[in-house]
UniProtKB/TrEMBL annotation:
This is DUF2029 domain-containing protein. The chain crosses the membrane at residues 20-40, 126-147, 191-211, 248-268, 329-347, 359-376, 382-398, 439-458. It comes from Azospirillum picis. It comes from the Bacteria. It holds the Pfam family GT87. It is a multi-pass membrane protein. Keywords: Cell membrane, Membrane, Transferase, Transmembrane, Transmembrane helix. Belongs to the glycosyltransferase 87 family. It is found in: Cell membrane.
Amino acid sequence: MPSMGHVHFDAAGDDRSAVWSIVAALLFVLLVDSLFGFILRPYLDGSDGDTTVWDVLVLIFVGNPERLPLDSWEPMMTALAWLHQHGGKDVYDAVFFTQHVKFQYPLTSLLPLELLSALHLLHLRVYALINLLMVVASAAGMALLMRDLSQGCDAGRPPTLRDQVPTRRWAPATLGIVATLCFYPITKAFAVGQIQVWLNAAFIFAALFYLRDRRLLAGLLLGGSTLIKPQMSLFLVWALLRRDWRFALGWTAVVVPGFAAATALYGLGPSLHYLDVLSFLGRHGESYYSNQTVNGLLHRLLHNGPNLLSMTSSDAAWRGSAFAPYHPLVHAATLVTGILFGLFGLLWRAGGKTGDRMASFLVAGLCFTIGSPISWVPHYGVMLPAFAVLLFILLGRLRSDRRRTLRDLLLLGTAFAIMSNDFFRPLDELADTPFNVLQSYLFFSGLLLLGLLVGTAGRQGAPDGGRPVSLSGALAAPGTGKAAPDTP
């Protein structure tokens, strides 16, 4: 993959140009968020009572915690209470299939709640505070990631040149923080009370540790994510295909004890019954517009199931307890595209060296998210690190291929502007028309980001007649000028 490792800036002018490019990106993010988040908000967002981040913060600190959003916590608490009352019986049959409460997580996801219960912290306000801390952690992780990527660009450069522009030290980190807090999937996860804020934070730090060649820590984090979101189990296969034993060891060191603990608490049978839930989700999926996958797109295009949330009791309104009706075409397409995305994420650049695997890592994260039967808006938060890496790669090759790089930077900025804002309300008007395909704008933005990442990684360039650009080197050892080891 193109890398900052062999990109050279030969003059202070180039150094200043790189710095002001980062500042321009920061101003772009602020401008886009101000334009769509404040100026045009009345035209984009209906007054349907949706909870905003500000509403949640008010409820946490000065309001009534009983009104806090419970998108993930309510079904998890329902399942936990049922298990405590009924021992090792089938919680999924009772809660998911009978009560129609969408407890769609493996039983290992309840282990954090068991810990909070043991500490007498099982309270709505505590959940919200933890989610808030996870958002802050995500912003801090992106700040560190952006700083490391910037230092990777500095590898091999004389220290006097690096320090000529003080802005270089704070601009990338500031951009990382601002981009995180302006990224709609991140803020939406917090606003609706989604446990996905934990997974977004874990993926950001996993990307940071993988960049630093701390693959054991990256594996530990994604192993923890697997206990909540089973799609992340594909990262074990991904690591084994690359003989990345440290990553695989980290993953296993969390998942095996976690599964053992859940089995000891709830029994092996209930844990295995989760496969019935996964099968049901794969066959049905969701038609609600927030499901940004092939499954959701086809359900809406075929008008198979409710598209919009309504405050009325109309049968056409999406209800959180309902799934889309079974449709054989949607099921087949979901299965085929899921396999294709999964295989691409697993196999792309499987034989690359350690430094090149950063691109493979990010592509896998994107594919495992896009290829799922159900991926809500908050699930797209894992795509934020890919924006950061692509930004620095494109800035690094700006001199060698200016026209194409400017085009790709424009596409990258467009993808970020679209993905980081809520355009669903005006697009709701298209729900009953063939143009409801536009409601999948987040899905298409994810495909654009994936295409840019794969296309940029596959394009070889030799700036100044020198060596091809690749991700090996400074990216894995930021600021040192030393290449990362090529062996796992």
